[in-house]
């Protein structure tokens, strides 16, 4: 690394002086004590804490240095340094002052970017580099020092501002801050489905020793693998989301952002983060080392990372990530439509998949008829591979199409609501024999407020130029039932499914002049201050009814 040796020597000599003052056991004068205190206060932010994980923020192209001292009186004193990049690759080095000429060390994890200087190499300068590394992997250096030594760590980010974590310890006997990984830290994919992937991995030795304080957490995303949990959390934050630190690991009751969904089931915590590049899921499953990831999208590549986490310290170690592609979704079954036959299709609102119907034309002109029974439905009609009609339907909808004999039509239906929807479908080449009745301009029922009494209401609806049968039904309901009744109404249901007591009357009417094709009806014998649901059914030549939009009216309480 490029650095100014002047600025290295100056703090080194001051720190060495301070360290010597600190190690002298003889009494000191007040002035000496004051000097030592001021010196250590000045360099306090630069001295690396022993036995504690330190977060270091790096500015682009600006080196940052930390120091630590190996004290005298400890023969072959061991120490380890673990550096975790939380974003982009960084460069970092360990340098030692020449005064500590006897040292030896080795990198815990070999890497082609790692260089090591043995104790037999004598650098001509006052400072020797004993280790350096460039990359974004978690890297640990283990070393031994046989004399009092002053070490410096220098960190540099050349891509952008970032942050890292650094852990130094000189006590290698009291256990590990980071959970241990097994000898084989790979994640194995043992099962792949259309929407699931099953993973397994070898147990961490830490789980076997401290089961109550250790757990596994899985990260699933569609972008790439992450080499540390720190890097994963940074990536989620950079997507525009405020992710609470170790949210999925500590199981703390943080308030979630609007883009987050928390799911807790079967002692497993799942955090689903909605980011611009897709979902990022964090799943913590205790000490189970086999897990089936559910609710994935078919034919999609996912990346899986497993972290073993110490719940007491929130420190984690990463297994070697893997990836897998879910199986392609099977081709949906296509149902054949027969000329003139009516079928009713129920569409799953949760999956919102297309339901396919196929028809081969036996005439040049054909007509598709759709009657929406419940919910909201999107319709696509494709002729010989080309879309000829596409829209969201409501009520009754006709599509009259022209083509050639034996043209193939594919009808695709999909619910646009989360709840289930249903629709009736018919295709026919016999225009002179319509299945459904001729419809008026509007299927709304109107009530007249001024004509309401305590025991009667007056309603009106539009008719057509064709003489048709209209039947009126009423139903008494409570105030809290209005929304449910209107939302759950099956507009394809026949009046025969209703209780006989709900039938009010049936009548025939029509008018050649559409402006006068309106009829009214006064329904009597009602209770005062009561809500009623009114329905009108229109019957055509084929006998198949069309239901008008339900109308709720309340009788007057006092008259």
From TrEMBL:
Native organism taxonomy: Eukaryota, Metazoa, Chordata, Craniata, Vertebrata
Top-level taxonomic group: Eukaryota
Segment forming the signal sequence: 1-21
Name of this protein: Protein NDNF
Keyword flag 4Fe-4S: no
One Pfam family from the record: NDNF_C
SMART domains noted in UniProt: FN3
Entry's localization field: Secreted
InterPro entries, sorted: FN3_dom, FN3_sf, Ig-like_fold, NDNF, NDNF_C, NDNF_Fn(III)_1, NDNF_N
GO biological process: one example: nervous system development
Principal location listed in the UniProt entry: secreted
Function: Secretory protein that plays a role in various cellular processes. Acts as a chemorepellent acting on gonadotropin-releasing hormone (GnRH) expressing neurons regulating their migration to the hypothalamus. Also promotes neuron migration, growth and survival as well as neurite outgrowth and is involved in the development of the olfactory system. May also act through the regulation of growth factors activity and downstream signaling. Also regulates extracellular matrix assembly and cell adhesiveness.
All residue ranges annotated as the Fibronectin type-III domain in the record: 179-316, 437-545
Gene Ontology molecular functions: heparin binding
Keywords: Glycoprotein, Neurogenesis, Repeat, Secreted, Signal
GO terms under cellular component: extracellular region
